[in-house]
Amino acid sequence: MNIFSSFKSSPTINFFQAGYTLVELLIxxxxxxxxxxQLSSLFISMLDAKQSSHALSAVEGDGQYIFSRLLYDIQRxxxxxxxxxxxxxxxxIQLTIGGVNYTYELVGAVLTLTRxxxxxxxxxxxxxxxxxxxxxxxxxxxxxxxxxxxLTSPIQETNGQESQLYQTTAGLR
Length: 173
Fold this sequence. Notes:
Radius of gyration: 35 Å
Number of strands: 9
Strand order of the largest sheet: 1-3-4-5-6
Order of helices and strands: HEEEEEEEEE
Largest sheet: 5 strands, antiparallel
Distance between the termini: 120 Å
Strand content: 25-35%
């Protein structure tokens, strides 16, 4: 009796047939690379869309707040001090409300409200420019202000910066 007969002989491995061929590996890496490129492109476009959305949101949010604040103060004002005369245009608005002076003006790229000597910036996420107020009305009648300002997002996008021009007219009550 042969003591080695109970052990089965292991099959011989042909090293030329084991594993993947070079062509199979190249095809695999090419497919993985294409998938990675597509996912990267999708991720980059999602980041661009988020940045664009954030810029638009900042401009619209600041614009709505500034509009609301200007309209509220003009409508409750006792007097328009500046622009001083009918038809006059100014890059500054000065109102008297309850004996207190309210002044709106651009300080650098920030539209600022000064009340009782305290300067309050009206926006933080955007840059303001082209602020102009024109006094309208009739002699002896209630006066109005035609307002205009531009807000621009500081975020540089691929198609430029988000910018909007705001215009309205508001009058004393």
